[in-house]
Each structure stands twice: as structure tokens, then as C-alpha cells.
């Protein structure tokens, strides 16, 4: 599509991962075709495009980790790999005819609210445009975080993050350092261990690891799903229901997780016979405080002769020598960082300038907060998918994304009913009330009481990432937009709630 064709659109969607593609499908289903999807890369897929490291796979069952409106009867495994999930997203883009709306190689550099015209002016690397509404679907797992390790700049070997895997660099026969022991690292370690000369794992905090109940889905089973679609729905519903029941232990009764800890310890004991190594790998916090990891191969890989586990974070780099915080040294040829992403300090927030001329990052300097995980005060007609406190610790984020798409659709309907040039800006009082309620509920959850430091917490120790309830509850609270939680903005200099507009919409409801 040419820039001139889309100088102004009704809706601009940022990102083409699950959130962005889901938003695009929902817009088309709502009869809205005047929209564009701005994607900084050259293809769709988001985190499933960027993360292509060896062993990359999902830790949520495939039939639950997919859109309800686009079931896939042909998942090859119960837990599918990155290549299959990315192929699924490519399929969604094709089936729902989204590609004409996608503008690739168009990274958003800045978005600025124009209060006079009630629109967003957007600067991208592929040209500029404006939009009535912006839906930000950049996702929290999109910008890698590499720690500022003293001396790293002088390291003579190869350095890359797991989400920016260098497939042109051959690890065979090399001495490799794996920094971090999170969800990516436990997949990478067993995948590269057989080929490297030596693998040194720098573990700042050991994870809890449970067995991964994964298997191939046979041809007969897939044929059944194709012939009888309700069997796919049944499978999805069962996976969902089990996780809905589990969430009570995470959010209300963390002590009940002790049984799961015993299972995890037995899983470790089966693979790790060396008591000293087992001691280094045993967490000292309640299971669930950090994301519970699933693997059948991680612990066995750590017992191999060419693997060393350093129970301390990387503290310094001296030439090709890596020095842990406890003084342990290792000579390596390559460093792979599995150190996560900018989650509570989203880089996109630096590029969004709201009604008061402040960036979203400035507004969120004391912690992220958005009404129902979607709308930030002072940023009219701007919504985020997978916003603050919408993350999950045990289920599928696709469920949360679809709930937020419901909210987005009703947001656009409300603008239609208002008529003319109008915008909705979340009231600070509504955002604060919502955030207080969420944080009050967060106090007794395992994520806050479990005794760990995780990426769920921001710099001040507040959990601005996870949703402290069930996915069914979140769907209920995002089903409709409550106009009393918003200011209605009109053109011609009016920036206030129009009570007549709100009353008129209520009477017509």
C-alpha cells in the first residue's frame, strides 16, 4: 500500500504478533476496514518471529495457545514449537486477508496526540500518517534486556541475546556461557549442550521445573479434530478449565502450592543425583513466585561432563574471562544472554506523547497503570493490548488478548454512537481506582508473597504485570466500556466530559 493511500486512517495497530493480528481480525469483523498494521520487521509473528533460538517452544498447550476464532486442528504436538506457532500466525494473516493492511519495515518512532484535531500523528521509518485511534500491540516480550555487565564491551568473542539468535555463528566446539536460567535458557541449554565444547550456566536464581507432558499428535487424532470441530473445542475447554481452577492457589492460597513443590523436587531428584548440584538447583522461594518452567531435558543436560553450573550471576567480564559475582571464573568464546525483556519499562512508552505533552514513560515513572489494562489517563483514543496487570502465571495469554479485543471493539462502538469528532480519555480517578483494586488483590498472591524477585515486579517492587484473578473474570470486566470512567473530548477546544453525550448513550443502551 502506498503512503498516500493511508495518510490518515481510523485505526492504527502497532505490531503484528498475536495482539496485533487479533486486533486486525476483530476490526474487520466489526466492519472496520480503514486501518493499518504498523510492523517494524519484515514479517508477522511478533515474539514468535523474533525468538528462533534452538529448542524454542511454547509452555502452554497448543489448542489453548491459539485464537478461539481460528482453531487449528493440525497442531503437530501438544506443546508446539516456534516454527509451528509462527506458521499459524502467517496462516491467520492469510485466511483473514490481513496482509493488505500491514505495512512492514515501519517502526514507530513517535506518536503524538493532536488535541486540536483529536488524532494521533505517527512517525515511522516507513513514512508518516495519522489515526483517530491507536491500538498498541507491541507486547511485553519484544525488546531484549541485556544487563550492564562491566567489561562486556571489551569481550573479544560473540555476544547475543536469545531473542536475537545469531544463526550464522556456529557454536560447535565452542566454549559457551549461558547467562540466565529462565524459560528461554532451559530450552537452549539442552539444545546446544551436545555440540559445544563446554557450557557454563550462570544462574542467579534457580527456577522451579516440572515435567513437560509433551507428545506428538498423531494423524488420526488430527483427522478427528478436522472432521469433528467440537473435539478441538472440548480439548481447549478442558485445558482452560484446569488452569482456571489452579489460579486460586496462585492468587488466594499460596500455601497450597507446597504439594507442587514436592513434585518439582522429585522431578529434580530423578535427574540430579549429585547432592551438591541438587542443592545449587533448589530454589529458596515458593513455587509460582517466578514462572514455573516445564522441561524433561534441562536437568539431564546439567549433569553432562561438559556443563558447569555457576550458582551466581555474571558480575564482570575481563577479556575472554567471565567472572561471577561469587568470584568463579570461566573462559568462553561466546556469551548467550537469556536475561528477559523490558517488561515494566516498555520502550514504546518513550515514544508515545499524550495530551499534556508528556510521554507515557514519564506518566508511568512510578509504575505502569491502565484502566482495565487498556487505557492510560492523558492518552485519548490510545489503547494497549497486554497492558499493565494483564499477564498470566499459569494460562494462555491469548485468552487475555481476546478479552482486550472485546474492550477495543466496544470502545470503537462508543465513539460511533457519540458521533462527530470525539475522543475518549480515561479519567485519572478511574485509573487510580482500578489500579488500587488490582494492587490490593495482589498483596496475598504468590507473586508478591513468595519470597522471590521476578520480572513481574517493577523497580519499586510493585507487581504491574500479572492479573490477580481468573481469565473468566477478566473477560467479564472488559466486556463493555463504562463511559463514566472516561472523559469525552470534542473538537473546538472542548476537553471535558460531555454529560449530555453520556446520558444520551445510556438511554439508547
UniProtKB/TrEMBL annotation:
UniProt EC number: 1.14.13.-
InterPro entries documented for this protein: FAD-bind_Monooxygenase_sf, FAD/NAD-bd_sf, Flavin_mOase-like
GO molecular function, one term: monooxygenase activity
Alphabetized Gene3D superfamilies for the sequence: FAD/NAD(P)-binding domain
Keywords: FAD, Flavoprotein, Monooxygenase, Oxidoreductase
Primary enzyme class: oxidoreductase
Pfam family name, one: FMO-like
Entry's family note: Belongs to the FAD-binding monooxygenase family.
Transmembrane segments: none
Descriptive protein name: Flavin-containing monooxygenase
Keyword check for Cell cycle: no
Lineage: superkingdom: Bacteria
Amino acid at each position: 500500500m502506498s503512503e498516500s493511500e493511508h495518510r490518515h486512517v481510523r485505526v492504527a495497530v502497532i505490531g503484528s504478533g498475536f495482539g496485533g493480528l487479533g486486533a486486525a481480525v476483530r476490526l474487520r469483523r466489526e466492519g472496520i476496514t480503514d486501518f493499518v498494521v504498523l510492523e517494524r520487521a519484515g514479517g508477522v509473528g511478533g515474539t514468535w518471529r523474533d525468538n528462533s533460538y534452538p529448542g524454542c517452544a511454547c509452555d502452554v498447550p497448543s489448542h489453548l495457545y491459539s485464537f478461539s476464532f481460528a482453531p487449528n486442528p493440525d497442531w503437530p504436538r501438544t506443546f508446539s514449537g516456534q516454527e509451528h506457532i509462527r506458521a499459524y500466525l502467517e496462516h491467520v494473516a492469510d485466511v483473514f486477508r490481513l496482509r493488505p493492511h500491514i505495512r512492514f519495515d515501519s517502526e514507530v518512532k513517535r506518536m503524538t496526540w493532536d488535541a486540536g484535531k483529536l488524532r494521533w500523528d505517527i512517525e515511522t521509518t516507513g513514512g508518516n500518517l495519522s489515526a483517530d485511534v491507536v491500538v498498541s500491540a507491541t507486547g511485553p516480550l519484544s525488546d531484549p534486556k541485556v544487563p550492564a555487565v562491566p567489561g562486556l564491551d571489551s569481550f573479544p568473542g560473540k555476544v547475543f541475546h536469545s531473542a536475537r539468535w545469531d544463526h550464522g555463528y556456529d557454536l560447535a566446539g565452542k566454549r559457551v556461557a549461558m547467562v540466565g536460567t529462565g524459560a528461554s535458557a532451559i530450552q537452549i541449554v539442552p539444545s546446544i549442550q551436545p555440540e559445544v565444547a563446554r557450557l557454563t550456566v550462570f544462574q542467579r536464581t534457580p527456577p522451579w521445573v516440572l515435567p513437560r507432558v509433551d507428545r506428538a499428535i498423531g494423524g488420526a487424532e488430527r483427522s478427528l479434530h478436522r472432521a469433528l470441530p467440537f473435539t478441538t473445542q472440548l480439548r481447549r475447554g478442558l485445558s482452560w478449565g484446569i488452569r482456571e481452577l489452579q489460579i486460586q492457589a496462585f492468587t488466594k492460597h499460596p500455601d497450597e502450592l507446597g504439594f507442587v513443590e514436592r513434585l518439582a523436587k522429585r522431578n529434580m531428584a530423578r535427574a540430579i543425583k549429585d547432592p551438591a548440584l541438587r542443592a545449587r538447583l533448589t530454589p529458596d522461594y515458593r513455587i509460582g513466585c517466578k514462572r514455573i518452567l516445564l522441561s524433561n531435558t534441562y536437568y539431564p543436560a546439567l549433569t553432562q561432563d561438559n556443563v558447569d553450573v555457576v550458582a551466581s550471576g555474571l558480575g564482570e567480564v575481563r577479556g575472554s574471562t567471565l567472572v561471577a559475582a561469587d568470584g568463579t571464573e570461566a573462559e568462553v568464546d561466546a556469551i548467550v544472554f537469556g536475561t528477559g525483556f523490558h517488561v515494566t519499562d516498555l520502550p514504546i512508552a518513550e515514544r508515545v506523547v499524550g495530551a499534556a505533552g508528556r510521554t507515557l514513560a514519564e506518566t508511568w515513572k512510578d509504575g505502569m497503570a491502565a484502566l482495565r489494562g487498556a487505557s492510560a489517563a492523558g492518552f485519548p483514543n490510545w489503547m494497549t493490548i497486554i497492558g499493565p496487570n494483564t499477564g498470566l502465571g499459569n494460562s494462555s495469554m491469548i485468552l487475555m488478548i481476546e478479552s482486550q479485543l472485546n474492550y477495543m471493539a466496544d470502545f470503537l462502538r462508543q465513539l460511533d454512537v457519540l458521533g462527530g469528532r470525539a475522543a475518549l480519555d480515561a479519567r485519572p480517578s478511574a485509573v487510580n481506582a482500578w489500579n488500587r483494586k488490582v494492587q490490593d488483590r495482589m498483596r496475598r498472591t504468590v507473586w508478591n508473597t513468595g519470597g522471590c524477585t521476578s520480572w513481574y515486579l517493577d523497580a519499586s517492587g510493585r507487581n504491574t504485570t500479572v492479573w490477580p484473578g481468573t481469565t473468566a473474570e477478566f473477560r467479564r470486566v472488559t466486556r463493555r466500556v463504562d463511559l463514566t470512567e472516561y472523559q469525552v473530548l470534542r473538537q473546538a477546544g472542548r476537553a471535558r466530559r460531555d454529560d449530555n453525550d453520556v446520558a444520551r448513550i445510556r438511554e439508547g443502551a
